[in-house]
């Protein structure tokens, strides 16, 4: 078993990169010390309290379009957006290892249109349709920040109004081996990563992004992944959040065969989102019929509070080697903020869960994107 701390094997230049992006050294030292002592132990992530499957009525959907209740929710949500009460945080920090390490947000999802441009297109259409005022913040990482800011300049800030767009950067950590030693890629370079989208809470607060939004009248923030073009502001969902939420609304979709990852489960009397690696052996996840989309609508005041989000030990295969990453996940907010769960369509005309994790996913979904945007009234023309 390795007994040398991985930080002791970094070069001066590698340490400088960590320091430039707000490296949490004390947290990392403690987390790595455990791995050095006992190796990778998946049980460190497991929930210790009893887990139960939620009742089916925990996942209501929106009423059908054209009904009186849906019209009222759509109207309330559209009015909130017109009043500038909704802000957006797009999670744009992923390393896109299955894309060969490219910056996914700037990849062409459709000819001449990147993921970020299509994300902005949805917001532009809402601004034109409802007179909405939606501040947008992009959470980049050390790996995506430079390319994203260059893309913003090249595309005229995606067509959005410059004063309504901000970027901020999540943290950074070095990958380690399962024995606790520093992981280096085949070229001998230390391998760094962004430590999970749970950084969105702390970094948005520390960077002043939440204060910037509050100054514009924002009261709630929609958080979602840049590679899920089904996500984005939806008037009915915003209206429902205003009417029924205690502070957080998490979107879920029906589970399909082969799905793996997070799902809502009842822990200690509260339904919260659990990633797959948090669920100990013995709990049958097939008893939960829905799947987490990582799209959350959260009251700004609650998002701005500090929460003791857990550092999870995540085993991955990167650049030909097995590594451990320490990550915090934004879905764990549901353990601290009372959450409502909204069942949304996964596919079809109103599908809201179309994630792209690999080039094969993108090839498969491009025809859906081409149909989806005009079908929803979203223009693909410039900008």
Structure commentary:
By secondary structure, the protein is α/β, with parallel strands linked by helices. It has one domain (6-375): Spore Coat Polysaccharide Biosynthesis Protein SpsA, Chain A, CATH 3.90.550. The protein is 29% helix and 21% strand. It has 10 helices and 16 strands. It has helices at 12-20, 25-38, 68-82, 115-130, 145-154, 199-206, 209-215, 235-244, 300-303, 359-375, and strands spanning 51-52, 86-91, 108-110, 113-114, 136-140, 165-169, 173-174, 192-193, 220-225, 248-254, 263-267, 270-274, 290-299, 312-318, 321-327, 339-343. Strand 5, helix 5 and strand 6 form a beta-alpha-beta unit. Helix 3 crosses helix 8 (235-244). It is globular.
Known CATH architecture: Alpha-Beta Complex
At the first level of CATH, what is the class? Answer: Alpha Beta
For this structure, what is the CATH homologous superfamily?
Spore Coat Polysaccharide Biosynthesis Protein SpsA, Chain A
Largest sheet entry: 7 strands, mixed
Q: Total strand count, please?
A: 16
Whole-number count of domains = 1
How do the SSEs run, as a string of H and E?
HHEHEEEHEHEEEHHEHEEEEHEEEH
Alpha plus pi helix count? 10
Question: How are the strands ordered across the major sheet?
Answer: 6-5-2-9-13-10-16
- Uncertain segments of ≥5 residues (pLDDT<50)? none
The percentage helix is 25-40%
Shape: globular
Attribute tags:
single chain, alpha/beta, seven-stranded mixed beta sheet, 10 helices, 16 strands, 383 residues, three-stranded antiparallel beta sheet, Spore Coat Polysaccharide Biosynthesis Protein SpsA, Chain A
């Amino acid at each position: 078993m390795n007994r040398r701390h991985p930080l002791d094997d970094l070069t001066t230049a590698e340490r400088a990169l960590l320091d430039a992006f707000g490296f949490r050294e004390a947290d990392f030292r403690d987390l790595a010390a455990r791995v050095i002592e006992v190796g990778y132990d998946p049980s460190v992530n497991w929930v210790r309290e009893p887990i139960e499957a939620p009742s089916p009525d925990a996942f209501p959907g929106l009423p059908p379009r054209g009904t009186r209740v849906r019209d009222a929710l759509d109207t309330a949500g559209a009015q909130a957006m017109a009043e500038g009460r909704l802000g957006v945080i797009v999670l744009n920090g992923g390393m896109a290892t299955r894309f060969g390490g490219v910056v996914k947000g700037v990849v062409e999802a459709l000819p001449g249109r990147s993921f970020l441009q299509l994300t902005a297109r949805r917001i532009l259409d809402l601004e034109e349709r409802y007179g909405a005022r939606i501040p947008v913040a992009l959470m980049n990482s050390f790996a995506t920040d430079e390319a994203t800011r260059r893309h913003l300049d090249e595309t005229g800030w995606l067509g959005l109004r410059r004063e309504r767009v901000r970027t901020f950067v999540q943290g950074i950590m070095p990958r380690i081996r399962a024995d606790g030693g520093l992981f280096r890629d085949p070229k001998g370079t230390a391998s760094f990563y962004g430590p999970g989208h749970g950084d969105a809470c702390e970094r948005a607060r520390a960077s002043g992004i939440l204060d910037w939004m509050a100054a514009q009248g924002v009261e709630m923030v929609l958080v979602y992944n840049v590679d899920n073009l089904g996500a984005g502001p939806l008037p009915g969902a915003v209206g429902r959040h205003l009417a029924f939420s205690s502070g957080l609304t998490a979107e879920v979709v029906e589970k399909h065969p082969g799905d793996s990852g997070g799902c809502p489960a009842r822990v200690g009397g509260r339904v919260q989102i659990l990633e797959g690696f948090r669920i100990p052996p013995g709990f049958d996840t097939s008893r939960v019929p829905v799947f987490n989309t990582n799209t959350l609508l959260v009251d700004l005041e609650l998002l701005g509070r500090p929460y003791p989000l857990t550092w999870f030990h995540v085993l991955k295969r990167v650049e030909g080697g097995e590594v451990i990453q320490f990550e915090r996940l934004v879905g764990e907010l549901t353990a601290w903020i009372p959450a409502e769960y909204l069942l949304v369509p996964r596919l079809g005309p109103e599908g809201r869960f179309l994630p792209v994790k690999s080039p094969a996913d993108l090839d498969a979904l491009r025809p859906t994107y081409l149909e989806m945007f005009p079908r929803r009234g979203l223009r693909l023309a410039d900008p």
